Amino acid sequence: MELETVIEPLVVETERFILRPLRQSDAGLMAFYAADERVASMTTSIPHPLPPGATEAYVTQALSDERAEDVWVMDATKSSGAELMGVISLKRMDRNQSELGYWVAPPAWNTGLASEAVRALVDANPLGNATIFASVFQDNPASARVLVNCGFDYIGDAEAFSVARNAKVATWTYLKTLA
Questions:
Q1: Residue 138 CB neighbours (<10 A)
Q2: What CATH number corresponds to the domain at position 46?
Q3: Which of 58, 82, 141, 161 maximizes the CB count within 10 A of its CB?
Q4: d(C-alpha 142, C-alpha 81), whole Å
Q5: Is 121 domain-assigned?
Q6: How would you label 48-76 residue by residue, b for 16+ Cβ within 10 Å and e otherwise?
Q7: How many Å apart are CA 136 and CA 169, to the nearest integer?
Q8: What is the CA radius of gyration of the chain?
Q9: Which of 80, 61, 78, 79 is nearest to 70 (CA)?
Q10: Any domain includes 151
Q11: Domains contained in the chain, number
Q12: pLDDT in tens, the chain (179 residues)
């Protein structure tokens, strides 16, 4: 008989909230916010309108042992806030690199939540990355400011397909070297 080592998921604590691993029970609030066109249209992967079962499928994949992306929830219950204020993730790449992605629920916009979450996750560096990349749509300067404020360096323009917009969208690409 072979025993597997169970590794406890990383929880990152900030002053106002915790970043905790995604749970099945997060699907409802996640679907509520992801269905908002303002949220979906600033991501590459959230469709709008949000089809039934899409969020549950995302959560199931994010919890799978074969996942390529590690997902945390911005949970503000420790300061009497909502259980899900946003989502932040690291998509694994080769050569000890990851791509950072995040979205914040509209009620928490312009509160510094995104900057606090990005800074906390990058400082914790749960995957031991040497480099973390991120890109934002050029019509979302608030997300660009988050990355710059967290020490990311601009490296160039590109484009990415947005499922919600059904179009290619111009992006700014950033990187942060950690090692």
A1: 14
A2: 3.40.630.30
A3: 58
A4: 22
A5: yes
A6: bebeeebbeebbeebeeeeeebbbbbbbb
A7: 10
A8: 16
A9: 61
A10: no
A11: 1
A12: 555 444 446 999 999 999 999 999 999 999 999 999 999 999 999 999 999 999 999 999 999 999 999 999 999 999 999 999 999 999 999 999 999 999 999 999 999 999 999 999 999 999 999 999 999 999 999 999 999 999 999 999 999 999 999 999 999 999 999 97
Residue 177 falls within a domain, yes or no?
no
User: What is the strand order of the sheet 167-177 is part of?
Assistant: 12-13, 18-21, 69-75, 86-93, 97-104, 131-137, 167-177, 153-162
Could you identify the residue written with the tokens 């909502």? 82
Task: Compute the distance between CA of residue 149 and CA of residue 128 in angstroms, rounded to an integer.
Answer: 21
Question: How far is it, in rounded angstroms, from Cα 71 to Cα 12?
Answer: 12
Distance (Å, whole) CA 122 – CA 100: 9
